[in-house]
Amino acid sequence: MADTETTDLTDAEAEEFRARCRAFLEEHATGIHLDGDADVGGAKRMAKGKQFQAALVEAGLAGLTYPTEFGGAGLTKQHDKIWREEQGKFPYMTFELIISHGMCLPVLNDFGSDAQKERFMAKNISAEEVWCQMFSEPGAGSDVASLQTRAELDGDEWIINGQKVWTTLAHLCDYGILIARTDPDQPKHKGISMFIVDMRDPAVEIRPIHQIDGGQHFNEVFFTDLRIPKDWQVGPYNEGWRLATAMLMYERVAIGTGGSGGVTHDTADRLIDVATKNGTITDANIRQELMKLYSSEVTKSLVSMRTRAELKAGRAPGPGGSLGKLFGANIARQTRSLALQIVGPGSVAWVEGSGDEKWSKTALSSFQSSIAGGTDEIQKNIIGERVLGLPREPSVDRGVPFKDLKVGTQKGD
Ligand SMILES: Cc1cc2nc3c(=O)[nH]c(=O)nc-3n(C[C@H](O)[C@H](O)[C@H](O)COP(=O)(O)OP(=O)(O)OC[C@H]3O[C@@H](n4cnc5c(N)ncnc54)[C@H](O)[C@@H]3O)c2cc1C
C-alpha cells in the first residue's frame, strides 16, 4: 500500500497520471442521457453510475486513496487531487453514489473492524453494493441524538426496532449505516451505537416519499424485529455519536465540496448561455445577478479547495465543510430566482423539446439544498461556535438519561 499522507509525485509522474485520468474521462464521462425518461426513482441514473464505476475499477482508478487490500487503488492524496481537477471538467457520472462513497465508505475505513473492511469495502468501492445513511427519524433531524430506534442484544444478534425517514435511495441500496439507541439510561448523546444493515432483509420495509419535483429519491424505512449479526456493530459500543458526527462532517464535505477539485462556475455558465440565446443578457439587473452567481460559485470552489487541502494534509474534516454546504444552499437559492427570471414562463409551462423543463426541476429541487445534510441554521450554529468561537447554544438535556426526556413519541418521566 502506498503512503497516502506523504508521497509527493514528480512533475512528470503527475502529468502522466493527469493524462491517464483525462483519457479515461474522455471515454467514459460522456454525460447521463435518459432520452426523456423521468427516471422517477433514480434507477437508471444509478445503473449508469455503477457502469462508470465498473470501468473505473477496470482502469485501476477506483477508490484512489483506499488501501489495495480493501479494494482501493492505494494511491496518494495528490493523485486524488489531480483526479478531482480533471473530473471537474467533465459531466459528473456518479451522483447517486455520493452517500455510499462520500460518507459510508470513509466511515467504514476509519472505524470498521478488519473483518468489516474485508467484507464490505471492495464491493462498496466498485459499486457492486451501494450504501445509504439512516440517521434521521420523524422526531430526530437537526437534533438527531434524540433518535428512538432501538438496538437490543440477544445472544449473537442485535434486534432492531424503529423508523428512519428521508433515507436517500434506500430502495436501490444493498446496505445502510444505521445509528440506534443501545442504552436509554445514558444521556442522549452517549447511549447510541452504529450498525450495518442489510437493506434486502424482509424485516426492513422501505416506503417511497413523493417529492415536489415528481421524483421519489428518498424513503421512510421501518425495522420490525430486524436481526443483524453481533459483529455488524461498527466502532465501540455506545460511542455511535462520535462516529455519527464524523460521518456528518464527511457528509458536509461531500455535499459542500462537490466532485471537483478546481475553480468552477458551471451553473452561471449555463445560465449565461440561456440568457445570451434568449436576449435577457442585455437586462442590467440580470447581468448583475449573473455576476453575483458567478462570484458565489467561484468563492465556493475556493472554500472547497481549502477544505480539500486540509483533508490532503491528513486532518479530519472540520467545520470548513459547513461553509461549503451553506454556500451551496445560497447558490441554489440564487439559481432558483435567476433561472425563473431568465427562462421566464417557459420554466413553468415549457414547450416540449425546448429544454426549459430542466430549469423548472432545478428550481423545485433547490429547496432541498438548505435542508439535506443539516439545515442552514444548523450550519450557521456550527460556524458560529466552531469557526467564530461564539458561545455554545444552551443545552438543558445533556446530563439527563435519555429515557427521562420528552422527545419524539417518548413522554419522559
Ligand atoms: C433531499 C434530502 C435528502 C436527505 N437524505 C437523508 C439521508 O439519506 N439520511 C438521513 O438520515 N437523513 C436524510 N435527510 C434528512 C435531513 O438530514 C434532515 O431533514 C435535516 O437534518 C433536518 O431535520 P428535520 O427535517 O427533522 O427538520 P427539524 O430538525 O425539525 O428542523 C425544522 C426547522 O427548525 C430549525 N432548527 C432546528 N434546530 C435548530 C437549532 N438548534 N437552531 C436553529 N434552528 C433550528 C431547522 O433549521 C429547520 O428550519 C435528507 C433530507 C433531504 C431534504
Give an overview in words.
- The chain is of the alpha+beta class.
- It folds into three domains: 11-93, no CATH class; 132-243, Beta Barrel (Butyryl-CoA Dehydrogenase, subunit A, domain 2), CATH 2.40.110.10; 263-374.
- The chain is built from eleven helices and eight strands.
- The chain has helices spanning 11-28, 43-58, 77-87, 98-111, 114-125, 240-257, 266-278, 284-312, 320-343, 357-365, 376-387; strands at residues 131-134, 150-154, 157-168, 175-181, 192-198, 204-209, 218-229, 233-234.
- Strand 2 (150-154) and strand 3 (157-168) form a beta hairpin.
- The longest helix has 29 residues, at 284-312.
- The chain is globular.
- The protein binds flavin-adenine dinucleotide (FAD).
- The site of flavin-adenine dinucleotide has 21 residues, from strand 1, strand 3 and helix 11.
Topology:
Blueprint: H1 11-28, H2 43-58, H3 77-87, H4 98-111, H5 114-125, E1 131-134, E2 150-154, E3 157-168, E4 175-181, E5 192-198, E6 204-209, E7 218-229, E8 233-234, H6 240-257, H7 266-278, H8 284-312, H9 320-343, H10 357-365, H11 376-387
Parallel strand pairs: 1-4
Antiparallel strand pairs: 2-3, 3-7, 4-5, 5-8, 6-7
Helix pairs in contact: 1-3, 4-5, 4-6, 6-9, 7-8, 7-9, 8-9, 9-10, 9-11
The protein binds flavin-adenine dinucleotide.
The site of flavin-adenine dinucleotide has 21 residues, from strand 1, strand 3 and helix 11.
Fourth-level CATH superfamily of the largest domain: Butyryl-CoA Dehydrogenase, subunit A, domain 2
Number of helices: 11
What is the straight-line distance between the termini?
54 Å
* Residues in helices, as a percent range: 40-55%
Q: Please give the CATH architecture of the largest domain.
A: Beta Barrel
Shape category: globular
Please outline the major beta sheet.
Answer: 4 strands, mixed
**Strand residues, percent:** 5-15%
Number of strands: 8
Low-confidence stretches: 1-6
Q: In CATH terms, what is the fold-level topology of the largest domain?
A: Butyryl-CoA Dehydrogenase, subunit A, domain 2
